[in-house]
């Protein structure tokens, strides 16, 4: 097949790359090109400082004619990275197991996307384009695509799109385990191609080559060989070693990285509904959060400003500017992504220390006269582990890590152990912070580490459902490892292992659909609820969707587990269900609190609930209201103060909030007092005797007099 590319003035455009989806050629001096008559689309690579109203055509088009127009792209070149917009159309008619939709009421709505795009001159005045890396729509329906295209018309700058797995659903949600042992959904790209055209293509901006691919069909094995061939051909059309970036719905793994003639300087992805920035073999891997609802790692809805200065990529992450920030909290526009400072002046504050990065849901660890905290620096691949003096808050040492530390450091004798978001685990000298050992991530391209480590004796346990490990605390050497509990998938695990004697109990979300009991010494299975009879309550519930860390109740010899909209008690010795109590709250990862009265359950977005230890029956329910600055509970849009569990101090519960308020609550469910801080708090307080230690999402560590609980 033959075609031509011209400039807007009618002159031929030479040297423009053109592809049929497998082969790549360039136009001659006369602007003409020739390609084998195959594939579904012919697309041009829009050159630097140019755009095109039509940059792709179906191969069946009678006249393959393209016109490129001048469009200046200045350095530094900034683009906005959005991902996983999951746009829905109200009353789309898609039904599911809980509440009418799968696990959430809606993604974004057309008006919300439109409003953000119209606000771009204010929120991102330097942005020259927008890159959206998949899951554009939620169910892959024709009406969603039509509404999405209409909403994008509000953008003041060019928008570049790629597909995600939801874009291929066509209203179906069936599951599939890929050739790479990846659990995802089935799909077909027909509707995406009908409305949006090619699923892989390239373009240039300000001297930077941008490559896009379709992760989902690549993972399903529908066209991975064709995409790999096209990628090699596309990169062969530019000078070897030229800077390029990849847009991919999921974090690119070996199945695509190994096909690259040379590595990109950066890769931008979504899919996980998290924030994760790592560097692997010189490539900056930027996994961005969703922009219109809170994320599965409990980070707020946000977007990234990305700047290309001609040599390197830099990031600036910003919370979506929906809600006014309460005056008591100061600037929260970067909370959980970067450190900020608003002093807390309450009389109960004994000292305040600023970490090098932000906090999130990870609490501090107090050991003797020292406080240990992890921090995240989400605008580059970095984090810290920091040691503070318990008495004064003075910094004793700070160790830098290669990616964010979103989990609590733990102490094993003279070693402080921390897990990074990329999966590396490090041991530091407790007194000096010197690095003692590093156990590398088992797969830095695919490991997303959110669950805190658990120490027992000279062993530390950590990992997710597809890679659970036991390490020697003295050396970091692997004692045992389980990779057979579940296929790999993108649904993050927040539960830390619970170790009771020689039994390790852990649940995962959403697979396996049951908790597991393992021999903590060997990793061998002791029991699994899936092996129980059909009358077992887990079979009735179909899948437990365990979201957080369990707690052991010695009085009843049971393990109490937080799940999606439920709390469950199981027998420690057998794994049999004692009771399962459903409640509102959806994604509530907070560990239940064992009290003399019963179990206190944190109902995220609602408040606290006391349930009977024997039956799970609700004893009292306490709604909480307050002015939080942003939502953190997964898939929510409305800000609410409650996400963290309380701590039991004496005969009172102390509940921290995203509104900066610490509430004192009696064991009969009555609020008896409160303290206002200047930091949103999403992590449980730590009782350190005469003081309580809180860590804010802004990276402030605060010591409060225990009298706050009196």
UniProtKB/TrEMBL annotation:
Domain Calcineurin-like phosphoesterase as annotated: residue spans: 79-273
InterPro entries: Calcineurin-like_PHP, Metallo-depent_PP-like, PQQ_b-propeller_rpt, PQQ_rpt_dom, Quinoprotein_ADH-like_sf, WD40/YVTN_repeat-like_dom_sf
One annotated GO molecular function: hydrolase activity
Residue ranges occupied by any Pyrrolo-quinoline quinone repeat domain in the UniProt entry: 346-490, 517-705
Top-level lineage group: Bacteria
Record's protein name: Outer membrane protein assembly factor BamB
């Amino acid at each position: 097949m033959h075609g031509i590319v011209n400039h807007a003035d009618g002159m031929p455009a030479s040297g423009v790359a053109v592809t049929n989806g497998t082969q790549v050629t360039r136009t001659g001096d006369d602007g003409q090109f020739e390609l084998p008559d195959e594939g579904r689309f012919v697309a041009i690579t829009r050159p630097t400082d140019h755009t095109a109203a039509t940059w792709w055509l179906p191969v069946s088009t009678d006249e393959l004619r393209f016109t490129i127009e001048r469009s200046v792209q200045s350095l530094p070149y900034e683009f906005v990275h959005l991902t996983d917009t999951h746009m829905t159309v109200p009353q789309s008619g898609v039904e599911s197991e809980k509440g009418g939709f799968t696990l959430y009421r809606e993604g974004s709505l057309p008006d919300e996307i439109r409003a953000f795009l119209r606000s771009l001159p204010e929120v991102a005045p330097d942005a020259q384009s927008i890159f959206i890396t998949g899951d554009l729509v939620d169910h892959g329906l024709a009406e969603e695509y039509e509404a999405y295209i209409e909403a994008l018309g509000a953008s003041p700058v060019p928008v570049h799109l790629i597909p995600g797995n939801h874009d291929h659903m066509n209203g179906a949600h069936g599951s599939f385990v890929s050739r790479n042992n990846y659990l995802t959904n089935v799909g077909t790209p027909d509707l995406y191609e009908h409305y949006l055209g090619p699923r892989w293509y390239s373009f240039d901006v300000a001297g930077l080559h941008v490559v896009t691919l379709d992760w989902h069909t690549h993972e399903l094995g529908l066209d991975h060989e064709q995409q790999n061939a096209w990628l090699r051909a596309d990169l062969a059309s530019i000078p070897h070693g030229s800077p390029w970036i990849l847009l991919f719905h999921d974090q690119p793994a070996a199945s695509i990285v190994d096909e690259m003639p040379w590595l990109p300087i950066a890769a931008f992805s979504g899919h996980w509904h998290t924030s994760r920035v790592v560097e692997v073999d010189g490539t900056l891997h930027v996994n961005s959060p969703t922009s219109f609802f809170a994320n599965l790692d409990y980070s707020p809805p946000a977007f990234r400003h990305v700047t290309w200065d001609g040599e390197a990529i830099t990031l600036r992450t910003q919370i979506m500017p929906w809600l006014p920030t309460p005056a008591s909290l100061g600037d929260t526009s970067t909370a959980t992504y970067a450190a900020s400072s608003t002093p807390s002046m309450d009389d109960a504050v004994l000292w305040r220390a600023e970490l090098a990065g932000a906090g999130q849901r990870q609490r501090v660890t107090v050991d003797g006269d020292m406080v240990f905290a992890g921090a995240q620096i989400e605008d580059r691949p970095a984090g810290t582990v920091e040691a503070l003096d318990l008495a004064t808050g003075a910094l004793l040492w700070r160790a830098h890590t290669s990616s964010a530390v979103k989990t609590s450091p733990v102490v094993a004798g003279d070693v402080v152990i921390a897990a990074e978001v990329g999966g590396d685990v490090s041991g530091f000298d407790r007194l000096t912070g010197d690095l003692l050992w590093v156990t590398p991530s088992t797969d830095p391209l695919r490991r997303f580490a959110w669950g805190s480590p658990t120490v027992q004796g000279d062993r530390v346990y950590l990992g997710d459902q597809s890679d659970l490990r036991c390490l020697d605390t003295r050396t970091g050497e692997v004692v045992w490892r389980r990779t057979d509990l579940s296929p790999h998938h993108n649904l993050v695990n927040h539960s830390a292992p619970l170790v009771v004697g020689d039994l390790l109990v852990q649940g995962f979300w959403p697979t396996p659909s049951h908790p597991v009991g393992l021999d903590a010494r060997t990793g061998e299975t002791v029991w699994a609820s899936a092996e129980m009879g059909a009358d077992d309550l887990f079979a009735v519930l179909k899948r437990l969707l365990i979201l957080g860390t369990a707690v052991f109740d010695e009085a009843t010899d049971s393990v109490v587990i937080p799940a999606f909209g439920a709390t469950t008690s199981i027998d420690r010795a057998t794994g049999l269900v004692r009771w399962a109590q459903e409640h509102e709250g959806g994604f509530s990862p907070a560990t239940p609190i064992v009290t003399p009265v019963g179990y206190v359950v944190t109902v995220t977005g609602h408040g606290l609930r006391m349930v009977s230890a024997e039956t799970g029956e609700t004893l009292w329910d306490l709604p909480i209201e307050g002015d939080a600055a942003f939502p953190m509970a997964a898939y929510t849009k409305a800000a609410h103060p409650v996400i963290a569990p309380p701590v039991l101090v004496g005969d009172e519960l102390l509940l921290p909030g995203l509104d900066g308020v610490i509430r004192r609550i009696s064991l009969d469910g009555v609020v008896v007092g409160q303290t206002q801080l200047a930091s949103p708090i999403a992590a449980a307080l730590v009782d350190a005797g005469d003081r309580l230690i809180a860590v804010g999402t802004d990276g402030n560590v605060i010591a409060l007099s225990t009298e706050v609980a009196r």
